[in-house]
Amino acid sequence: MTEGARLAGVAAAPGVARGPWVHVRRRELPVGGRVAPDAVEAEEARLRDAANGAADDLAALSERVGAEGHGDEAAIFMAHAAIAWDPALIDAAAARIRDEGEDGVAAIGAAGASVAAMLAALDDEVLSARAADVTDVADRIARILAGLPVEESLLPSPAVVVADDLSPSLTATLPREHILGIVLEAGSPTAHAAILARAYGIPAVVGSRGILAALEAAGADAELALDGATGEVWIAPDAASRADLDARAARIARSRAGDLEDASLPAVTRDGVEVTLLANIGTPGEAAPARALGARGVGLFRTEFLFLERSTPPSEAEQATAYREAVEAFGGDPVTIRLLDIGGDKPIPYLPMTAEDNPFLGVRALRLAWDRPEIFVTQLRACYRAAVAGPVKVMAPMVADGGDATLLLELAARARDGLAAEGAAVGEVDLGVMLEIPSAILSADSWFGDVRFASLGTNDLTQYALAVDRGNPALERYRDAMHPAVLRLIAMAAESAARAGISLSVCGEMGGDPAAALALVGLGVHQLSMGAASLPAVRRAIRGADAAELRSLAAAALGDRSAAEARARFAALLAPG
């Protein structure tokens, strides 16, 4: 490998790092064996003891990580503890001991692999990434059974960590003061190892194919560098590359300090149009960091974390506690809770669903409520209870027309009336819809008056408008929500919302893209919700623009031939760097 060789990967956690590298890998597990018939009962008991031990260790790890100020990351390990306690996994392994005569190591490995394979096959990036969590927990249980150390001293001095993949628990237990950065041959930005890297401020690149072989060829003394914001990796960077990397690191340090200083500034254009910036969150623990970066509420609170990776549904009380935690964290700013968004691509054990050839066009999200209303009534009851602590908005996903909006209102009335009959304390809740299906926008004038707000889910809106499978990499060029057809749908939604007198926001990835955010403001959307990390860049873009110019550019973009043409109009307004 020549000096300055560069590999491409996928950006996973922003930041720049360079230094020596270490290939982190655990000691191999022994191959599983067989167990004598008269030892089956004892081996099953040993399996259950190991699972309980793993769960206790993970709960302790969760407590430690939480005490360090990382509440959301602590929740990851508590979820891992739940996996270790999950009867579905442990009973499957115990059955293999009884029926196949496998020992505990082989049984838990096979059971974990089966569950992980099912998750990995799902057409959902977030859920398929959870396969690594199940594998991690099964590996921990197997190591306890085999008498191997679960945590190993793998990073004695500061280095860039390199691996095929990293389990979440291994990522969390490596000494963070020694982790300069992370480069993985596999993995995805939504895997928990990447989530933890972002939480801990560790630069990371995933999907860097060929990195392990290239480093072996370069030798143990070769320096390794990475830029977690661009996905670039350098092996033995030359002097010019090192100088460039050091300059990038200095810019990042200045930018992060400025992000916190600017968090209190309003997102207002130079000609006085104010835009409300909101946060997309997936757990209550993400609320505080988003607020610190200037979020003025939550535009999308995904609630699936409460329902997945468990064998029984969450109780009303459990849901109300989680929602209330987020509401309290925002101290009077509104929190928009999205009702459960699952379907055939997101199976859960206690909610069996018929397999569908195309689950993205099937019975999912609010459509489930026609046959299983109780799930949504319970969730709505929890939302009304949480609203006692502050302003709450609830929106239904996968709404196609006014009939779906009516269903939401009926479910909410059942929830509210039931609580009132019980004498329970309830708060005010605004009801709204997600606009992901073109038909909802095309028919909006006939029913928008029935709801209080609407939010554009631009990820799915783009998928449905352009007939683009979000999971198919061959269709990458069609995925840009700046496509003129999508912009026209957004313009129509804004006009319908204005006629009905209801608020309109965006909660898809488009809102966190600075160039696209400017287009949205030009189209008349003045509430943008995004991942917390995107807030500073979008705020800067808005504060540097004129709304009148944005309106003119947006009108012109509606007549463009491609997303690239439309995007170029707004990208030209962004300050370099």
Question: Which blocks of ≥5 consecutive residues have pLDDT under 50?
Answer: none
What is the molecular shape?
A: globular
Which class do the helix and strand fractions yield? Answer: alpha/beta
Terminal CA distance: 30 Å
Mean pLDDT: 87
Describe the structure.
The structure is a single chain. This protein has 577 residues and is an alpha/beta fold. Helix content is 46%, strand content 14%. It contains 21 helices and 18 strands. The chain has helices spanning 40-67, 71-85, 87-100, 104-120, 125-129, 131-146, 168-173, 192-200, 211-218, 239-262, 287-292, 316-329, 373-386, 402-422, 438-442, 458-466, 484-500, 514-522, 535-543, 547-557, 563-571; strands spanning 5-8, 10-13, 16-19, 21-23, 159-163, 179-184, 204-206, 224-227, 232-235, 267-268, 274-281, 298-301, 335-338, 392-396, 429-435, 453-456, 503-506, 527-530. The strands form 3 sheets. Strands 10, 11, 12, 13, 14, 15, 16, 17 and 18 form a 9-stranded mixed β-sheet that branches. Strands 2-7-6-5-4 form a 5-stranded mixed β-sheet. The longest helix is centred in the first third of the chain and has 28 residues, at 40-67. The relative contact order is 0.09. The model has no long low-confidence stretch (mean pLDDT 87).
